[in-house]
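Re: that backbone. Tokens:
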């Protein structure tokens, strides 16, 4: 792998595609054949080696037309927020702790799939959700491709990070068991399009741009329809766990999903963690959401 990497970085490349591997997750994985496939298809590659390295890479290597991301939802999130407003395209392949977005599109990290993708893909324009985050100290903006989770679901992700040494199929049931004893209800005020403000208790909130995998088995929205959906849950301990681990559970709460194209504001009575495409933001007091239709170029496998 080091031989391929060194050779790629020795000259000023004329290639149009750069593959970015999340170094933390690929450190001990054998990807030599994948790198050779990229070489044979005129694509460069680089591995991240530190926190926020993706941002640095995208700033320095901005001559490429498109980027292949090998990482989790957080890798996608970082890239989108660096490229927003540019004319670059992205595509994504699983390689992180949480791969909901890549999983939704059935993207694979195999040589045959990669070969087919590089020779036959199509560009689509995707919606993003613009989110203004409010804390006591500041207001900052992020763009979301897939989903946000607030409250219990975000807390589960924070807890899961402490057990990264566990295999995934053991880690999440274990964290689910621990979370059974930590479900916390909080009060919110929310309004759609700055009208009809409502007050409600919640254990978790899901805001979905159609990339939340099993968080929403009743997805009505699509990545390119100018709409998004949200669900406010106020469960008992058993109901909250069931809603997370059963993709069929939400069949009983179909009417609770709200599909909208209007701005949404949610204010919390106490600071909450928010997970946005795999990235955690803490001490959030309020979020303002607006849909941004057809703003991000994304390459997906073309039809044969």
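Recovered sequence:
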């Amino acid at each position: 792998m080091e031989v391929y990497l060194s050779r790629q970085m020795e000259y000023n490349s004329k290639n149009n595609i750069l593959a970015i591997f999340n170094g933390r997750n690929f450190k001990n994985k054998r990807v030599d054949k994948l790198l050779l496939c990229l070489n044979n298809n005129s694509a460069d590659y680089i591995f991240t080696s530190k926190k926020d390295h993706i941002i640095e890479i995208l700033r320095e290597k901005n001559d490429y037309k498109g980027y292949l991301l090998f990482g989790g939802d957080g890798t996608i999130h970082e890239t989108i927020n660096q490229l927003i407003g540019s004319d670059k395209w992205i595509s994504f392949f699983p390689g992180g702790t949480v791969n909901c977005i890549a999983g939704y599109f059935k993207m694979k990290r195999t040589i045959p799939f990669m070969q087919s993708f590089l020779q036959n893909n199509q560009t689509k324009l995707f919606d993003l959700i613009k989110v203004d985050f409010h804390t006591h100290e500041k207001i900052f903006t992020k763009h979301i491709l897939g989903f946000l989770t607030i409250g219990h679901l975000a807390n589960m992700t924070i807890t899961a990070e402490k057990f990264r040494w566990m295999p995934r199929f053991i880690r999440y049931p274990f964290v689910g068991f621990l979370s059974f004893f930590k479900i916390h209800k909080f009060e919110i005020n929310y309004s759609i399009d700055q009208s009809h403000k409502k007050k409600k208790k919640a254990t978790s909130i899901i805001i979905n741009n159609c990339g939340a995998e099993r968080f929403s088995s009743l997805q009505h929205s699509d990545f390119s329809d100018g709409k998004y959906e949200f669900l406010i849950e106020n469960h008992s301990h058993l109901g909250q766990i069931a809603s997370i681990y059963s993709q069929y559970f939400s069949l009983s709460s179909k009417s609770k999903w709200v599909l909208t194209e209007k701005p949404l504001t949610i204010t919390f009575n106490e600071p909450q963690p928010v997970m946005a495409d795999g990235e955690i933001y803490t001490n959030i007091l309020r979020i303002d959401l607006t849909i941004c239709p057809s703003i991000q170029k994304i390459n997906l496998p073309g039809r044969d």
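The first strand starts at residue 17 and ends at 21. The domain at 2-119 is CATH 3.40.50.10330 (Rossmann fold).
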